[in-house]
Write a structure and sequence with these properties.
The complex is a heterotetramer of chains A (about 575), B (about 80), C (about 500) and D (about 120). Chain B contains three helices and one strand. By secondary structure, chain B is mainly α. Chain B has a domain of about 35 residues. Chain B is elongated. In chain C, strands 1-2 form a two-stranded antiparallel ribbon. By secondary structure, chain C is mainly α. The longest helix of chain C has about 30 residues. The two termini of chain C are about 20 Å apart. Chain D has one domain: Orthogonal Bundle (Helix Hairpins). The chains are: A mainly alpha (about 575), B mainly alpha (about 80), C mainly alpha (about 500), D mainly alpha (about 120). Chains in contact: A-B, A-C, A-D, C-D. β3 of chain A pairs antiparallel with β1 of chain B.
């Protein structure tokens, strides 16, 4: 039976639980959140039933297919859902939790399916449910930012659908796998996926929408959308060289915009773009080593970014703001556990030895070097060093230690609710931080889950020394420039300016121009000279029969016009060689 | 509307710290001379004199420079979008 | 053999006077409901028979074909009859409370009688195998529709009905002229005889002028009935001011039947070779269809009366159907025919939401939707799902139509058309979203209506349709199978 | 082709166009209905003209007559006349109701009243 087989698919189970989750009584919701993700994780790793297929519209769809890459991503997504929703239990709305389950179900579904149509279904579901999560943030700008987010993602979905349609129409296989370069289908699908990865020129949506979510909402958002895109890129576009410049742009964009940012959660959002850019470069190079590295680093990144965002979430819950200038400076001694977790996460993001990205980022870098991409290697080296300027150094500094800019901020810090989180939320944060360290200490456990055989050894004297040098220089530079780069109360223009200002202004200009010219032409038509000269005015004037769109007579006139033109066209078309429309349309 | 950005006092600090920084880094380069050995790096055929430091330093300084330049160009007051 | 085809039309036709004769008002509703459910049951049996055994021919009164009127039920007819009677059955279940509120008590019985007559007319069009009979049934359904629309509460309904009457009569007369010219050429009115004789007409290099003129009249007449752009102008008013139940019924059925007529006339009577290769109907339909998709969707975005917005969206959706036809390929036809079904599902559901909202708040202006997300959660949830289907989100029926239409256009290599289809679906996002935003995110209305959830008798049919939207979005094999077989029949000139 | 021989067709077309013109240009709803009637009636004439067979008589079987006119169009037109009557009836009923609620049957004035609401 197919319907029972569906319950073997973790994504479907999550979606089916997510829909009614918001309506369950609190105790039931709580127990589902605590138990379901670990159970599904166990199920994924022990499942041996083989692929699940269905036939839809004559296409064979593969709803479940366990590949090593997919399993790796799905597992870390499942952990992210679990930890994120444990963290969220404290104050997230039921709707947010339900949406998060659907959202994660979509992401996990994509990792474990093996055809483009199923992928597209999950893809749209992710766009809709993640928009709901943004809206659940209920901040001042959440609604509009969510709308921008939704519009961009639906447009991306349209590109993806057109691409998949073209793939099917060309008779190509709809199986999820490496696409042959070239053709509409290839580029449309790539565009649709890249949009979700935060590629230019739409990179702004990450920092625009994510920080508008609730403290826990952003934890979910950071884990799934961009990393799912990375997964699809690894599967279908490995070795697509066009990804290299795009990735480089994103990596540098992420650093620069994070540096100009004052809101610590937006800094982390830009840091996501930066890291995804790093992964895109690795996918674009496409050797087994860099692909391994991209996957490993995606796992590491999801984990440490989650910990950092939970830390930022704790601050936001306590103080109600995440603007660096209003944080009050000495938060670290009010919340020791949070501080510890943030520091671990930050260390992991920078690639300090014995933390997660030390063992993952270096796989990418060495892979780049082996592939002979000297220039790209240099750029990526710099990018990984400059992480100190966003997630690694600057974020914890601004969040916990930096001296305050306003006196009002310090009084907020003394409020009684500025403390560490308790219970499950603390557990979730600690679990994330612990994983960052475990991966750092036991890299082989992660490497063994990678699809290509990994022979890389991170802990050599040379490598450690290399990383220490990089961090030392970058750290020193950060420390020296920290005051210059202290954020001002401002925003930075991005390409969303075109969406939010330029288009609106053009529209206003256009519509006002249209109104004036319309008024002018009416004036001209109704002027007395015109009226006396033109008999035809009776029919065509502003109140004439032709202009009165609602009048029965004018509709009837349309009928006559259509009839006449149809008769003429049909007669002309019937004459061979005189097929007017065919010639007009160029067919 | 353009928001107030870095003051004149800030820029004085930049020039001072930058010069101080250059000295520090140069001395570190000398200290790290010939200590580095990594088979992977495309720079492994170069003399291994603090090459990672050099790359990091140049790269980071360039990024910071670009950032400061963009700051002048792109930063606006917080209520920019509310006004438009 | 069996009398199913005749029974199908006779049930509503006989029950209509019964409604009028009864003094008991609830009884009228009861009879109408029973009649529609009986028709629905018959249509299911009919569809099953046709799928299993092929087309049924039934001679009315036992008079064989060239003299008497014969009913010819092939898979396309059965499909359309299924749509019409299914929607009718659900609409009648929905109607009880809504009609009580919107129609004056003394005309309640007439209302149900007219609804049944309209249903009989629509079913007749789909079932009959006689060209003139099509005209008669068309007028039966149209005349009752004018009267039904005129029953709307606001006085504008009268104007809309009158306008529709003028336009509808012109359209029907054009169809009559077309049929007359065909008769003058062939000497028969039976659709199958017509087809075989039209094929025998020798066509000179310049074509047969009578045939061409006949087809021109038919196309324009049908375009009017279809509300194909730019002859759609009667539709928004008619749908907006008609009573809710009438809007649900007409939006989900009347235009579908008009599409059916277009298919029947152009593929089965005149033949695909003549219509598409010689007259290039494909190209002539293409431009209005694309214009309908773009212009009507754009206009819908700026409407404040949500019923009117949905009416414009219907015009755009009709554009999708005719676009499928204009492709002149098996895939395109299947897409067009399948979209008839799917559109009936989603528009039926959405207009039911309008009916429920009108029942509780009295009108369906955008501003009336404020706060409804909380006060009428089930109704607004139905709107969201119906809207998702209209946008063509995966796992809804709308996605299937969109996907198949995309495939068909891509197969033909019409890239710009593909882009327009996708753009149309994005525009649908915008106009649906305005309502969702108002319902869920805007502050409540200043004046509290004391609104509560719509009664169960409204919610149930609404959610049956929503369920169908989702079910047929996941397992679409039955309607798709029927649509594809119907397309095969049409492509071979209706002879199978 | 002799134009005169087909004069009944020309009459039908003339009537049709007249009716159509009245529908398009007249704002008075009653006049519109009259135009519509003209329009549909012209189609009846068209049909009946089709039925005429040269030299044929009324289709009643009688000795010595070989050629009959085609009776079918007449039958059809009987139906169409009924339809036309029904349409006019519905139309007039609507006009009456419109007069009741608007106080006028001029389309311009009706529109003004609606817009001023």
């Amino acid at each position: 039976m197919l319907s029972t087989k569906l319950l073997y698919i973790p994504g479907v189970v999550l979606i089916l639980t997510g829909i009614p989750l918001a309506f369950f009584p609190a105790w039931l919701r709580r127990s589902i959140i605590i138990t379901l993700p670990p159970l599904l994780l166990l199920h994924m790793w022990t499942f041996s039933g083989g692929d699940i297929h269905v036939t839809w519209l004559g296409y064979k769809l593969t709803l479940l297919h366990l590949s090593s890459t997919g399993l790796l991503f799905a597992s870390v997504f499942m952990f992210a859902l679990w930890a994120g929703s444990l963290f969220a239990l404290q104050d997230a709305s039921p709707l947010e939790l339900g949406s998060a389950f659907i959202y994660a179900g979509g992401a996990i579904g994509i990792c474990l399916c093996a055809d483009w149509i199923t992928l597209f279904c999950y893809w749209e579901l992710m766009a809709l449910s993640s928009t709901l999560i943004v809206w659940c943030g209920k901040q001042q700008d959440s609604w509009r930012a969510g709308l921008r987010y939704l519009l961009i993602h639906l447009a991306g979905g349209v590109a993806l659908l057109a691409g998949i349609g073209a793939l099917a129409a060309a008779g190509g296989s709809l199986e999820l796998g490496r696409l042959a370069p070239g053709g509409y289908a290839y580029w449309l699908i790539l565009a649709g996926i890249l949009l979700n990865a935060g590629a230019p020129p739409f990179s702004f949506w990450v920092a625009d929408a994510y920080p508008q979510a609730s403290p826990s909402g952003m934890v979910f958002l950071s884990a799934f959308t961009t990393k799912t895109a990375v997964f699809v890129l690894i599967t279908a576009f490995a070795g697509a060289n066009v990804l290299i410049p795009i990735g480089i742009y994103m990596a540098i964009y992420g650093i620069i915009y994070a540096l100009l940012e004052q809101d610590i959660r937006r800094i982390l959002a830009y840091s996501i773009v930066n890291q995804v850019g790093f992964m895109l470069v690795a996918v674009g190079v496409g050797t087994p080593d860099t692909l391994n590295g991209a996957q490993a680093h995606a796992v590491a990144h999801i984990l440490y970014k989650m910990v950092l965002l939970m830390g930022a979430g704790v601050i936001m819950r306590s103080l109600g703001t995440t603007k660096a200038r209003e944080l009050g400076g000495a938060l670290w001694h009010k919340m020791p556990w949070t501080t510890a977790c943030i520091l671990v996460g930050a260390a992991a993001s920078m690639g300090v030895p014995f933390t997660s990205s030390f063992v993952t980022k270096s796989v990418v870098l060495s892979g780049l070097a082996d592939a002979g991409m000297g220039f790209v290697w240099v750029l990526m080296l710099v990018c990984s060093a400059t992480v100190v300027f966003n997630a690694g150094g600057r974020f914890p500094w601004l969040a916990l230690f930096a001296p305050t800019a306003t006196s009002a901020a310090t009084s907020k810090v003394d409020a009684p609710k500025v403390t560490d989180p308790k219970g499950l939320a603390l557990f979730a944060m600690l679990a994330g931080a612990l994983l960052c360290l475990v991966i750092g200490w036991f890299p082989q456990s992660l490497y063994s889950a990678l699809p290509h055989t990994a022979i890389y050894q991170p802990y050599t004297f040379g490598h450690i020394l290399e990383q220490v040098q990089i961090l030392a220089v970058a750290g020193a530079l950060f420390w020296l420039t920290r005051r210059v780069l202290y954020p001002s109360a401002s925003i930075t223009l991005d390409t969303d300016w075109f969406l939010r200002v330029a288009v609106l202004r053009t529209w206003q200009w256009f519509s006002s121009g249209l109104a004036t010219s319309y008024a002018k032409s009416i004036e001209l038509l109704t002027s007395s000279q015109m009226r006396s000269y033109m008999l035809i005015f009776i029919l065509h004037g502003p109140r004439g029969i032709l202009a009165r769109s609602w009048y029965t007579g004018s509709i009837a006139l349309w009928v006559a016009v259509m009839l006449a033109s149809y008769i003429i066209l049909y007669n002309l078309n019937a004459i061979p060689g005189l097929n007017v429309l065919q010639q007009l349309l160029g067919r | 509307m353009r928001a107030p950005i870095s003051s004149a006092k800030d820029s004085v600090i930049v020039s001072k710290t930058t010069s101080r920084l250059l000295w520090i880094v140069l001395s570190m380069l000398l200290l790290g001379a010939d200590l580095i050995w990594t088979p992977h790096a495309p720079v492994s055929h170069l003399p291994q004199i603090g090459i990672y430091m050099l790359i990091t330093l140049t790269g980071t300084v360039v990024v910071l420079g670009v950032t400061l330049g963009l700051r002048r160009l792109l930063q606006r007051g917080e209520d920019y979008y509310a006004e438009h | 053999m069996n009398h199913l085809a005749a029974i199908q039309v006779i049930i509503p036709l006989l029950c209509a006077p019964l409604c009028m004769l009864l003094r008991w008002r609830t009884g009228a509703w009861l009879i109408a409901t029973l009649a529609t459910w009986a028709t629905f049951g018959v249509s299911l049996v009919l569809a099953r028979t046709v799928i299993l055994n092929g087309a049924i021919t039934y001679d009315m009164g036992g008079w064989p074909a060239p003299w008497g009127i014969s009913y010819h039920v092939d898979i396309l007819s059965a499909f359309v009859v299924l749509i019409v009677s299914g929607v009718a059955a659900l609409t009648l279940a929905f109607a009880y409370k809504s009609v009580q509120r919107e129609i004056r008590p003394e005309s309640l019985r007439a209302f149900y009688a007219l609804l049944l007559i309209c249903l009989a007319g629509l079913l007749g069009i789909a079932l009959t195998g006689d060209a003139f009979n099509i005209y008669v049934f068309l007028e039966i359904s149209s005349l009752s529709a004018y009267a039904l629309i005129g029953m709307g509460q606001r006085r504008r309904a009268l104007r809309a009905a009158f306008q529709y009457l003028i336009m509808g009569t012109i359209g029907a007369t054009f169809i009559l002229i077309g049929i007359g010219l065909l008769y003058s050429l062939t000497g028969t009115l039976n659709i199958q005889d017509l087809a075989s004789r039209v094929e025998m007409i020798p066509t000179s290099t310049y074509g047969n002028h009578t045939l061409i003129t006949a087809f021109a009249f038919l196309t324009v007449g049908l375009s009017l009935k279809l509300a194909l752009f730019p002859l759609h102008l009667w539709l928004p008013n008619a749908y907006t001011y008609a009573p809710s139940v009438v809007t649900i019924f007409l939006a989900a059925t009347a235009t579908k039947v008009a599409v059916y007529m277009l298919l029947r006339f152009s593929f089965c009577i005149l033949g695909q070779r003549f219509v598409f290769e010689q007259l290039t109907l494909g190209n002539i339909l293409l431009l209005p269809s694309l214009a309908a998709i773009l212009v009507a969707s754009l206009v819908a975005i700026f409407q404040y009366d949500i019923k009117r917005m949905l009416a414009y969206s219907s015009i755009a959706q009709i554009g999708y159907m005719t676009l499928g036809i204009s492709l002149n390929s098996h895939a395109g036809l299947s897409a067009g025919i399948l979209h008839m079904f799917n559109h009936a599902l989603m528009k039926g559901a959405l207009f039911m939401v309008m009916g429920a909202v009108a029942y509780r708040t009295g009108s369906v202006y955008l501003s009336d939707f404020r706060g409804l997300g909380r006060r009428m959660p089930w109704t607004m949830a139905a709107f969201v799902f119906g809207g998702l289907s209209l946008m063509g989100v995966p796992l809804t029926a709308g996605f299937i139509s969109k996907w198949i239409l995309l495939q068909a256009t891509l197969e033909a290599g019409w890239w710009p058309v593909t882009a327009i289809i996708l753009l149309g679906s994005l525009l649908a996002v915008i106009y649906i979203w305005r309502v969702v935003e108002t319902a869920y995110f805007n502050p409540r209305h200043e004046i509290e209506h004391g609104t509560e959830e719509a009664p169960l008798s409204m919610l149930l049919p609404m959610w049956v349709l929503i369920g169908a939207n989702i079910y047929f979005g996941i397992d679409t094999s039955i309607p798709l199978h029927m649509a594809e077989r119907a397309a095969t029949i049409l492509m071979s000139g209706g002879t199978l | 082709m002799n134009i005169g021989a087909h004069y009944n067709y020309w009459v039908a077309i003339f009537l049709m166009m007249t009716g159509f013109y009245v529908v398009i240009t007249h704002g008075n709803l009653i006049k519109k209905l009259i135009g519509l009637n003209l329009f549909t009636t012209s189609v009846f004439i068209l049909y009946i003209s089709l039925a005429k067979v040269k030299g044929g008589t009324a289709p009643i079987i009688a000795p010595g007559i070989e050629v009959y006119s085609n009776p079918l169009p007449h039958v059809l037109i009987l139906t169409a006349i009924v339809v036309g009557v029904a349409t006019t009836a519905v139309g007039l009923a609507l006009v009456l109701l419109i007069y009741d609620r608007y106080g006028t049957i001029e389309e311009d004035e009706i529109r003004l009243k609606d817009d001023s609401l």
